[in-house]
Specification:
GO terms for molecular function: histone H3K4me3 reader activity. The protein is an alpha+beta fold. Helix content is 33%, strand content 19%.
Length: 279
């Protein structure tokens, strides 16, 4: 199979713009959620004051106390959720500022070429010096840590680098630190480094990881036209692709973005075709 020769500059610019648009969309969505929560808090405050005033001069019944407890509990839960959501917005905004500053400055950090079988396209080997702290998913999204555990195979999104084409690489989780929203993962590239030593390790948040299923059995087929992230055959790099169809054995027929050969379809094992979602 011939190596893939993909134009780098257009793909890089498109990827940069795509990441910034995604971040802005998430920030707007979180702010809308904060507005909804704020409106609900105002309603709860009014209802709570009314209940407290109603029982100020007399003994409250058991049912009255249950109503008050329910109001207090919802108020507390909303306050906690507002705090987490606001912190997420601040972190997304910090990252967006870092991306925009780096883009306008014409550089997103140094680059070290990664050697991949069959694929001579470069991807960053060292983390960027810019801030990439993204610790939480949106409050309305599923738990981003679900299924992520030691020895799990994952697709890991490298920090942005100048002229870096491959944003996602296959890694293995080798360590986990922290709990809840502060949980961080240590992931390792299975490929040896250029000196033949152990693969590079990275620190990552759940937002930068996508779990790779252990096998393809039982995985549902993707509908034609679905935009996915898939591992290019005989490499450990993932690229965006469009699903063209599914074979009887579950193998996906894909068209990779930037493929040199017009109309080329590539078959990829189902477990290595990932739903990128809002990442």
């Amino acid at each position: 199979m011939a190596a893939r020769n993909r134009p780098r500059a257009p793909l890089k610019e498109e990827a940069d713009a795509h990441e910034e648009r995604d971040l802005w969309t998430k920030i707007v969505r979180e702010l809308q959620e904060l507005q909804r929560m704020s409106e609900r808090v105002q309603v709860l405050t009014t209802e709570t004051q009314r209940e407290e005033e109603r029982h100020a001069e007399g003994d409250a019944s058991l049912e009255d106390l249950k109503i008050l407890k329910k109001l207090y509990t919802e108020h507390q839960e909303l306050a906690d959720k507002e705090q987490l959501t606001l912190q997420s917005v601040l972190e997304w905004n910090d990252l967006l500022i870092a991306l925009r500053t780096a883009t306008e400055g014409g550089d997103r950090g140094g680059e070290k070429k990664r050697k991949r079988k069959i694929d001579d396209a470069g991807a960053a080997d060292s983390p960027s010096s810019r801030n990439t702290k993204v610790a939480r998913s949106m409050s309305a999204a599923p738990d981003p840590h679900n299924g992520l555990q030691k020895d799990s195979e994952v697709a890991y999104r490298l920090p942005k680098q100048k002229n870096a084409e491959g944003m996602w690489i296959q890694c293995i989780i080798v360590g986990i630190a922290g709990d809840g929203n502060k949980r961080k993962y240590e992931v390792q590239d299975p490929e040896p480094d250029e000196a033949g030593g152990h693969g590079t390790t990275y620190k990552a948040s759940a937002n930068a990881l996508i779990l790779i299923p252990k096998d393809s059995a039982g995985l549902p087929p993707y509908p034609p036209g679905k935009q996915v992230l898939a591992r290019y055959p005989e490499t450990t790099t993932f690229y965006r692709a469009e699903v063209m169809g599914t074979k009887a054995d579950g193998t996906c027929r894909l068209k990779f973005e930037g493929e040199e050969e017009v109309g080329k379809e590539t078959e990829v094992e189902r477990r290595l075709v990932l739903d990128v979602g809002n990442k």
